[in-house]
Every structure is written in C-alpha cells, then in structure tokens.
Amino acid sequence: MENLLVTPEEAAEALRVGRAKVYDLMRTGALRSVKIGGSRRVPRTALEAYVAALLGEEVA
Fold this sequence. Notes:
- By secondary structure, the protein is an alpha+beta fold.
- The protein has one domain (5-55).
- The protein is built from three helices and three strands.
- Strands 1-3-2 form a three-stranded antiparallel β-sheet.
- Strand 2 and strand 3 form a beta hairpin.
- The relative contact order is 0.21.
- One of its GO terms (molecular function) is DNA binding.
- Pfam families: HTH_17.
- Residues 5-52 form the Helix-turn-helix domain.
C-alpha cells in the first residue's frame, strides 16, 4: 500500500523542489499538511491538488 502521508522531504523530492520551498508552501497554505505529534506530513492528495492548481485544473 502506498503511503497516504509523506514527509516534507519526500514531498520536496516528489515536486523536485527544496525542502525549504515545501515548508514555505505549507506555511502559506498553498500546500495542505497535517500535524501528527510534533511532525508535519503532507497528504498525497494535497500534492496532486497543488500540481493541478499549478496547471489550472480542478481536482475532484
């Protein structure tokens, strides 16, 4: 089963950007994330929604 949540580092790798950029996107709300304990995680659906928004597409 593919992970439903990824670390910011894994999100950065998937988006081909730096880790700092992912934290910036999370801070501004452009990339949704959840806090579990003291750690931030990014839902895979949030990555897909972010890319779709960049492309100007609607996500179901």
